[in-house]
Amino acid sequence: MPIEILKLEVGPWPMNSYILSCNETKECAVVDPGADANKILKAIQGMKVKFILITHGHSDHIGALESVRKKTSALVCAHSADATEFKFDTDLALFDGDELGIGSFGLKVLHIPGHSAGQVCFDLMDDRIIVGDTVFVGGPGKTWSAEGFITTMKNMENIVFKWKDETRFYPGHGPDGIIGKERPAYEKFVQKGWEDGLFGDVAWI
Description:
alpha/beta, 6 helices
């Protein structure tokens, strides 16, 4: 059985927090404890929390970090760019290509900046990827400058839309998606082009 993904909607936005667990060993990781610490802690009862994985450092993704860290003593893992910018402590700095083990399974770290300088995704290496705010159903993650949007689109071309069509992605907000279903709208957007200086909330159509 592959690593299990449990999605929890937390906070008023809402935001997706994920529990990645190995049924064989009862070891797990919490991804993006954004809010509602008690809800997250209830979901991991009976499991050993090895890691708290942070896709990026925005407040809606780390709002319950300290509460979950205190209760679990798990290692907090994030890219140093976001840990520095958003001023939270980590136990393990993540870099592109790093691999982490959870029970009998592993995941690979993908550094995909744009939404934030330290935005990372967690590739479960079975055509499922936790993507944070990198990409959503219907468009890329929000950017804060024209330069950030250019970076995002380069990474869409060079990384995200190089993933196989059957790849299922799990974003920080909203429903999970499938790359092959997003590809036609993405390609149409790229073919059409966009005006100079574009950034912010952008949709493929």
